[in-house]
Amino acid sequence: MRHLVPRVLVALKRLEVLLRRQRHPRRRPHQPRPRLRPIERHAVTNLRQQYLDAAGTATGLLAADEVAAAWTADSALEGFTVAGLAGHLAAQIWGAAAALEGDYTGKDTITLMEHFGRAKWIKTDLDNEANTKVRDGGRRLAEPGPEALLEGTRERLARFETALPALTGQEQAGTDYWAYAMSLDEYLITRIMELVVHTDDLAHSVGIATPSFDSEPFDTAIRMLARLSVKRHGQAALVRALARAERAPADITGL
């Protein structure tokens, strides 16, 4: 039996070497080092598609029976009826379609934050010229009634969607009464934010649940509101409001 022991040990050694090679195969000199597969990332939807998604959600709210039923009632926003607020919400779609056809000759193109720095409707008297113009515009748009407003909104959204494939996002955009222009993509960020905020205003005004937006346009709106909040209140105020109830400030609104 003793003469079998070395053979058994040799066999066990060979088996150990074989198992090690299976776990850690040697590469031939000419073989490239194997690469790890990259982590797949979720494709980020561009801002034009985000805008279409947000506008579609808002248009769905304009079609709600509760909006038409409360058309002449006061809304949750001071100075707006439900009709006027619906018109202002729709204006974020009518205006985007018109922005593609605007003439911006001689106007400087400014950045997103420069735009909000010049905005005369943020934290000002409700009866000032800028806010009065906003309310009057919504009311005029809604004057033909809820069905006509909805039909016109759908038509302009379809017009914008048709133009989408040819857009780069760097085209100039804006309104007739702005003294400046913005890039289309940055202009659409302002519209996405308006759509998210005023959809909630209108849904609350007529007593129904606020529609849920797709995550990407909603994130864009929240990022913009957060930036405006930080600009007005500072970083610490926003962090405390979101993470520390015991020392959260009373107000972190960005608008």
CATH architecture of one domain: Up-down Bundle
Biggest β-sheet: strands ordered side by side in the sheet: 1-2
Integer average pLDDT: 84
Low-confidence stretches: 27-44
Structural class: mainly alpha
Our measurement of the CA-to-CA distance between the termini, rounded to an integer number of angstroms, reads 92 Å
What does this structure look like?
- By secondary structure, this protein is mainly alpha-helical.
- It is 58% helix and 2% strand.
Please describe the topology of this protein.
Blueprint: H1 4-23, H2 47-62, H3 65-69, H4 82-99, H5 112-118, H6 129-142, H7 146-163, E1 172-173, E2 182-183, H8 184-205, H9 215-233, H10 235-243
Antiparallel strand pairs: 1-2
Helix pairs in contact: 2-4, 2-7, 2-8, 4-6, 4-7, 4-8, 8-9, 9-10
Supply database-style keywords:
10 helices, DinB/YfiT-like, single chain, Mycothiol-dependent maleylpyruvate isomerase metal-binding domain-containing protein, Four Helix Bundle (Hemerythrin (Met), subunit A), globular, mainly alpha, metal ion binding, 2 strands
Short summary of the structure?
The chain has helices at residues 4-23, 47-62, 65-69, 82-99, 112-118, 129-142, 146-163, 184-205, 215-233, 235-243; strands at residues 172-173, 182-183. It is mainly alpha-helical.
